[in-house]
Write a structure and sequence with these properties.
The complex is a heterodimer of chains A (194) and B (195).
Chain A: E1 13-16, H1 23-30, H2 35-40, H3 50-67, E2 71-77, E3 83-93, E4 98-105, H4 114-129, E5 134-140, H5 144-152, E6 156-167, E7 170-180, H6 181-191
Parallel strand pairs in A: 4-5
Antiparallel strand pairs in A: 1-2, 2-3, 3-4, 5-7, 6-7
Chain B: E1 11-14, H1 18-29, H2 32-38, H3 48-60, E2 66-73, E3 79-86, E4 93-100, H4 110-125, E5 130-136, H5 140-149, E6 152-163, E7 166-176, H6 177-184
Parallel strand pairs in B: 4-5
Antiparallel strand pairs in B: 1-2, 2-3, 3-4, 5-7, 6-7
The chains are: A alpha+beta (194), B alpha+beta (195).
Chain lengths: 194, 195
């Protein structure tokens, strides 16, 4: 990697800005199924209309402008405008060089390697452009796929908050995973990063 | 039913006017050690006016988003700190924050008793399932106090803090209602199946 390497372009996908005209319709479509929302966090899932989503996206843009603690990207294929997911680095605390990371791929777009490609870009951006020392990812214990995914990238389980989530009539733990800059560097060879 | 739930032996949980909180918070935050034990973010030394305006809005919300109490020492009724439950989730979890601003009351059990009172409030009045907190690795006095109040260790997020040129971990702790009832039910004369 050097100064001319694109931070936003991977092998399959690219990190882009929010498109206020088109993206809300796609995100509204995804919210018809609770699966995506339930895998991410404990916020109760609900279907959202495009107009509601647009308001949320406007709030996100305002937050990026004013609070300086968030980088929020919409993920698209290299040669297509179609939205396939989103990724964000949020709750950045600059003095401690830490942040959280979240990745979501639309239900109809999963299983094609888009997530892994986008996650590589997000990690590289976080560690080499934002100069963070630590990233954390929070996942419900039932999101086995997400857990295996972040582990593959070198994250390790640090915190298990017991019975935080009540869903489908039972209690689930909320897990926190962490990845340090030094671990990301030493993983570079085995992960085949550029 | 015991309705005297805001009073312990050393302290009581109090309601204060926004300007009383504001004057005390502003003074306590000028003690940098207090701020560094309480918060990850560097302290902003706000004026009492700003804090008062924020609290006036916050305390008006009904139902409250934040359950904020003053901590008053029973002997002399001096306001020595605060404790709050913030961001209760739809799943019955909340985070607790506590600060004893008056240094004369550090390490003498005042904070621990206030924490025990607010847990009783969380479990018996709010009906929550668990209470969460995080505490910094360089605050062993806090860790010990929370252990006494019933919290158990749930993990350690590495290198979350960079201060004085060193990196420190943040410890996460939690207490489940069921465990709390087993530990403190008898102390509060609770009959387990109706508690």
């Amino acid at each position: 990697m050097n100064i001319s390497t694109s931070l936003y372009t991977g092998k399959l996908v690219r990190l882009t800005r929010i498109e206020m005209d088109k993206d809300p319709a796609t995100l509204a479509e995804w919210s018809k199924d609770a699966a995506l929302a339930r895998m991410l966090d404990q916020t109760p899932a609900r279907p959202l209309a495009p107009e509601q989503i647009k308001k949320r996206l406007e709030k996100i843009e305002k937050g990026m402008d004013e609070d300086h603690d968030l980088f929020h990207f919409h993920i698209r294929l290299l040669e297509e405008e179609k939205l396939v997911g989103w990724g964000k680095i949020y709750w950045i605390l600059w003095p401690s060089q830490i942040a959280n990371i979240e990745l979501a791929i639309g239900p109809s777009e999963q299983g094609q390697g888009y997530g892994a490609d986008a996650f590589r870009l997000l990690l590289r951006l976080a560690f080499t452009e934002l100069n963070l020392n630590r990233l954390a990812a929070s996942l419900p214990e039932y999101n086995i796929r997400g857990i295996n995914f972040v582990k593959k990238f070198g994250f390790s389980e640090e915190v298990r908050r017991r019975e935080v989530i009540l869903r489908d009539g039972r209690r689930w733990d909320s897990l926190l995973f962490g990845l340090l800059h030094s671990e990301w560097i030493s993983n570079q060879g085995s992960m085949n990063h550029e | 039913m015991n309705n005297d739930i805001f009073r312990g032996k050393l302290v009581r949980l109090s309601a204060e006017n926004p300007e009383t909180y504001a004057e005390h918070f502003s003074r306590w935050w000028h003690d940098s050690e207090y701020g560094r034990l309480l918060d990850l973010a560097p302290a902003q030394l706000y004026s009492p006016k700003r804090t008062k305006e924020w609290l006036e809005k916050e305390l008006e919300k009904d139902p409250p988003e934040m359950w904020l109490f003053g901590i008053r020492a029973q002997d002399g009724d001096k306001l020595i700190g605060f404790v709050d439950l913030s961001g209760a989730t739809a799943h019955g979890d909340t985070f607790v924050g506590i600060g004893i601003g008056e240094r004369d009351y550090w390490g003498r059990g005042y904070g621990t008793e206030a924490m025990k009172l607010v847990l009783r409030f969380a479990f018996l009045e709010l009906g929550l399932h668990r209470v969460s907190l995080d505490v910094f690795e360089y605050n062993p006095r806090g860790v010990k106090s929370y252990e006494k109040a019933g919290f158990r260790h749930e993990g350690r997020a590495r290198e979350m803090i960079l201060r004085d040129g060193k990196r420190f971990d943040v410890l996460f702790m939690g207490v489940l209602r069921e465990d709390w009832l087993k530990q403190f039910g008898a102390e509060y004369d609770l009959i387990p199946n109706i508690a």
